[in-house]
Amino acid sequence: MRPGAVIVDMAVSSGGNCALSEPGQTVQKHGVTIIGELNLPALLSVNASELYARNISTLLLHLGSGEGFQWNFEEEITGGSVITHQGEIKHRLTAEILGKG
Q1: What gap in Å lies between CA 101 and CA 96, rounded to an integer?
Q2: pLDDT by residue (tens digit) across 26-56?
Q3: Could you tell me how far CA 26 lies from the centroid of its own chain?
Q4: Which helix (H) or strand (E) holds 86?
Q5: DSSP 8-state assignment for residue 22
Q6: Mind giving me the DSSP string for 29-77?
Q7: Which H/E stretch holds residue 6?
Q8: Which DSSP letter does residue 18 get?
């Protein structure tokens, strides 16, 4: 493999798919990073939850300020994330699908 490549050995706990994997370790061999995490799914769920929380937090901070929410439906992020507002369909594709746009 080329230097800089990364191998994630998902079977490291049962012997591994890469002869150079080390259980529970991330190592560099011949310029290649080999990840041998023993419980990879447990790590991913935390990261996925953190990513989701960061995305929601960023969206809410974008939509709001100290004075409240800013509803600029012409702005790409707001217009693309709000489906309805005060009983009116604001999302262009949803309105087209429902024949209201």
Answers
A1: 5
A2: 999 999 999 999 988 777 777 888 899 999 9
A3: 22
A4: none
A5: -
A6: ETTEEEE--TTHHHHHHHHHHHHHHHHHHHHHHHHEETTEE---TTSHH
A7: strand 6-8
A8: S
